[in-house]
Amino acid sequence: MNRLSAVRKRVLTGVFLLAATPLLAACSSHHQSVADANNSGAYVKAGPVTYQLEVSRQLNPYASEDSGYLRGLPKSEGSLAPDQEWYMVSLWAKNTTQQLQKTTSRFDVVDTQGNVYKPIIFNNPYIWRSVTLAPGAVEPAPNTTAGYGPTQGAMLIFKIFSSGTKSAYSNRPLTLRIYGNTGKVWATVSLDL
Asked: Is the dihedral angle over the CA atoms 178, 85, 164, 53 positive or is it negative?
């Protein structure tokens, strides 16, 4: 009877440890302050919303597809300096919670030298907008221009330095920072250039 009791204790201990493993793993990841993803297709949890980088690339304003993404730029932002170029980041987001959640409107791109690029907000059906998502809803919605578009994401458009001492090409990798409503960085995504 003593030996049977010892076997039962070992089996119960093993069952307990097996059941507790996911809980222990969750505890260790609870302290991660900023989610991070590496490149196109990666999902990153930023606060209550999951974001996915669809694509990031230089835009050619003379190409028919790319010129559509730049249509509607305000005159004050419409021209580039000789050492600048257009850069696009296309994002998709999903509310994976059971409550209404608002997507963020606060992003920037930073290079390894600390140069910060802010997105240009303007009226264009492809441009990212902060929206309130119902549980399970996505942005851009599937029935929108951005949702049907080639990247199937909503876009952030940046002017980046393409040459000189501030060149984004010399200061790679670029990192997209996703901010929460408190101004804190919730997630980062490494970008192609």
From this structure: positive
Nearest to 193 by CA among 175, 177, 166: 175
CB 118 within 8 A of CB 75: no
CB 20 within 8 A of CB 12: no
Q: pTM of this prediction?
A: 0.78
Q: For residues 34 and 172, is the Cβ–Cβ distance under 8 A?
A: no
24 domain-assigned:
no
Range of the structural domain that residue 44 is part of: 32-191
Q: What is the pLDDT of residues 162-175, one digit of tens each?
A: 988 888 888 889 99
pLDDT tens-digit readout, 81-110:
999 999 999 999 999 999 999 999 999 999
> Which pLDDT belongs to residue 2?
54
Give yes or no for a contact between 50 and 39, defined as CB atoms under 8 angstroms apart. no
CATH number of the domain residue 42 falls in? 2.60.40.1240
User: Which helix (H) or strand (E) element contains residue 101?
Assistant: strand 101-102
